[in-house]
Specification:
heterodimer, A: 239 residues, alpha/beta, Rossmann fold, 9 helices, 35% helix, B: 254 residues, mainly alpha, 0% strand
Chain lengths: 239, 254
């Protein structure tokens, strides 16, 4: 489902927290219909980058474009689905209530029932969220991200805290969504899934984008067969 | 409007299901019980005490409910990262307006509920008169200002304790500052000090102006013009604080 049309383009993006330079002149283009993986160590700038893309943080410099227009709040409200890292929804609501309330604010949306079916939560939809496991909460977060039937889905550590079955379920679901034409941008530390599912990757280290391209190009650049090893070489971590 | 309603209902349902709501209802019932016994002890002033103490009980419990409830909810949205999700659905103006309105609705719902208990006590003590409900209305207006102040401090500070304490202090000073500042101004001859105290007097909420407890305790009903000006003052004050809070909320994004 990949196309050459650029759907999200980031130009010269910089972000500083006090004296800490979290992002430095990031230039990145995401093509429509691709699964783009962002790799980086902890505090490399992955979350900051994603938060800037959804306009939660204001960068000091740089511009983000959505389909060649400057990214606006309205575009985010209509075309972007987002699952933040370590997300905790309101515990006293049920999944169905949360999705129904959020959905009532949208012009066009998928029925909450459909979203919950996709993520495998239809049986638990009436239960209070406080009874959910970590895996179910992550799946609920994904259901919220899918609610507006977005063109771009941004996921920050979507499989954080999930067991192997949960991880597998999420990635299979993401692949299905991608086949339906959704562009997916995700950050994760689980390399086997990146190798298997991502079309292209971006390696971010100390706020700088060190590599963008296909996994094959990255492996040949680092002259190794393992993505994990190539990544560690790129960020100069000795094992 | 649809987006604001979505935020309102989301927070309203959540707020009613929080333990703090139930806790405050029980606290109010306890205070009302005290009011009842106090009225028995106040021979000759039984009706006035039932009205006044009942309204005070409603105000104190309502204040705890909205301030603790709002602060907890606002900061919980931040720590749970839910705010990041909300802001991909709504603008920051919609979020703050919806949050404020949802807690106004919770305060209104609570005051209606508490008002029913209070009216029962008033009827038992023979202290009920139809205009008693104006007391509930005046408490609602005061809680609206408290909530707007809480929104402002929640947007301003990263610490919930700070936001909570500042709201309580400003609320308390709003109750007494007007009279205190009037007295202080008389003793200051310097134009700078005078201007400072006068500014402070206008900036702080004049909660004593919208308090009807004393009048209603003695079954005195304020005139319609006074009631309209109470409404207008509260509306303008809350609107100003909401705009200011949202601007701060937007600036804090960076």
């Amino acid at each position: 489902m990949q196309s050459q049309e650029v759907i999200v383009s980031i130009q010269e993006l910089s972000k500083t927290f006090g004296t800490f330079r979290a992002l430095e002149k990031i230039n990145l283009s995401i093509n429509a219909g691709e699964i783009f993986g962002i790799l980086g160590l902890n505090a490399a700038g992955k979350t900051t980058l994603l938060r800037c893309v959804v306009n939660f943080l204001k960068p000091e410099e740089g511009t983000i474009f959505f389909k060649s227009n400057t990214l606006t709040d309205s575009a985010i409200h209509n075309a972007f689905g987002y699952l933040p890292e370590d997300f905790h929804p309101p515990l006293n609501l049920s999944a169905e209530e949360l999705l129904t309330f959020l959905g009532s604010s949208l012009d066009s949306k998928l029925p909450p029932k459909t979203c919950l079916e996709w993520v495998g939560l239809s049986k638990e939809k009436s239960k209070k969220i406080k009874t959910y496991s970590r895996g179910m909460i992550q799946r609920l977060g994904l259901a919220i991200a899918l609610l507006k039937d977005p063109q771009v889905i941004i996921l920050d550590e979507p499989i954080l805290g999930l067991d192997l079955a949960g991880q597998r379920h999420i990635f299979v679901l993401l692949k299905e969504l991608n086949l339906k034409g959704k562009t997916i941008i995700l950050s994760t530390h689980i390399f086997p899934y990146i190798e298997k599912f991502c079309h292209r990757i971006g390696v971010i280290h100390k706020g700088k984008l060190r590599f963008t391209g296909s996994i094959e190009d990255f492996l040949s650049q680092q002259n190794t067969a393992s993505l994990e090893e190539a990544f560690l070489k790129e960020v100069k971590v000795e094992v | 409007m649809r987006k604001i309603l979505a935020v309102i209902f989301l927070n309203f349902i959540q707020g009613l299901r929080e333990r703090i709501f139930l806790g405050v209802v029980f606290f109010f019932i306890f205070l009302l019980g005290l009011t009842f016994f106090l009225s028995i002890l106040s021979v000759g002033e039984s009706a006035a005490v039932t009205r006044s103490a009942g309204l005070s009980a409603m105000e104190i419990s309502g204040l705890f409910l909205v301030i603790f409830g709002f602060t907890f909810s606002f900061y919980n949205d931040k720590t749970s990262r839910m705010i990041e999700v909300y802001l991909t659905f709504f603008s920051r103006y919609v979020y703050t307006a919806g949050k404020l309105c949802s807690f106004l609705l919770i305060a209104f719902f609570y005051l209606i509920l508490a008002g029913i208990f209070w009216v029962i006590i008033l009827i038992i003590n023979g202290a009920f008169f139809w205009q008693s409900w104006l007391g509930i209305l005046s408490i609602f207006l005061k809680l609206s200002i408290a909530l707007s102040l809480n929104l402002l401090f929640s947007c301003l500070f990263s610490s919930p304790i700070f936001a909570l304490l500042c709201t309580l202090f400003i609320y308390a000073s709003g109750e007494i500052a007007s009279q205190a500042l009037k007295a202080v101004i008389i003793y200051f001859k310097s134009p700078i000090s005078l201007a400072l105290f006068k500014t402070l007097k206008y900036i702080l909420p004049n909660l004593d102006k919208i308090d009807l407890k004393y009048q209603l305790a003695y079954a005195q009903v304020p005139n319609a013009n006074f009631l309209v000006s109470m409404f207008f003052y509260t509306f303008c004050y809350c609107l100003f604080l909401w705009i200011l809070s949202t601007r701060i909320f937007i600036i804090n994004r960076s």
